UniProtKB/TrEMBL annotation:
InterPro entries xref list: LysR-type_TF_proteobact-type, LysR_subst-bd
Pfam families recorded: LysR_substrate
Listed PANTHER family: HTH-TYPE TRANSCRIPTIONAL REGULATOR (PTHR30537), TRANSCRIPTIONAL REGULATORY PROTEIN (PTHR30537:SF3)
Source taxon at top rank: Bacteria
Family designation: Belongs to the LysR transcriptional regulatory family.
Domain LysR substrate-binding: 2-194
Protein name, per record: LysR family transcriptional regulator
Length: 204
């Protein structure tokens, strides 16, 4: 049994094909996928392996930096067919914006760079990253999503990249006591390779 922790978006949009690959190649392994935007405590074994969007600060962890995931403003073709794409910040604030409700550490970090994008600017709000992404895909408004996820299943159009480009360092971490666990090392290596391939798609 290997317990893997990831955010909602990574866990629903990126990891499933990697876990399918693991099960195909290593059917004897059992995988538990824990989806939470709360950082799981690996030292207390809430998870064996975790995908994190912040630099690990705990000791006793094996950590591998996988790259940087870029976040951009996006809208669906259906939304842009009804509304003219914004060209500046004033235009942007005339649109329906999809975003957060409660302030999280990620949101606080983003607000330091983009204080204009306060909670009140978003007239469609949810704290679920998956719901935000699907609202953007459904044409509910303009919102933030990972550049890689804007390509499928419905290609989204990126807006105002010169104004908004936010980067998340991405790490894969595991408790150092598990370094000799063949199961954990196997899962760690496959996830690392798959996530690095995903991150590299941003430049394609």
């Amino acid at each position: 049994m290997v317990r893997v922790s990831a955010s909602e978006i990574i866990g629903t949009e990126v990891l499933p094909p990697l876990i399918a690959q693991i099960k195909e190649d290593y059917p004897q392994l059992s995988i538990e996928l824990v989806l939470s935007n709360r950082m799981q405590d690996l030292l207390n074994r809430e998870a064996d392996i975790a995908v994190r969007m912040t630099t690990p600060v705990q000791e006793q962890l094996i950590a591998r930096r996988l790259g940087s995931i870029e976040i951009g403003l996006h809208a669906s073709p259906s939304y842009l067919a009804r509304h003219t794409a914004p060209e500046n910040i004033d235009d942007l604030f005339t649109h329906t914006l999809v975003g957060f409700d409660k302030t999280t550490p990620f949101i606080l970090q983003a607000l330091k760079q983009y204080p204009q994008l306060s909670r009140e600017r978003f007239t469609v709000r949810t704290d679920s990253d998956v719901a935000q992404l699907n609202l953007i895909r459904a044409g509910a408004g303009i919102g933030m999503c990972q550049v890689q996820l804007a390509r499928l299943p419905v290609p989204l159009e990126r807006l105002m990249p010169d104004f908004f480009a936010f980067h998340l360092d991405t790490w894969l971490v595991m408790h150092e006591d598990l370094r000799h666990s063949k199961a954990c090392k196997t899962v760690f290596d496959i996830l690392a390779a798959g996530l690095q391939a995903y991150i590299s798609k941003a430049g394609l």
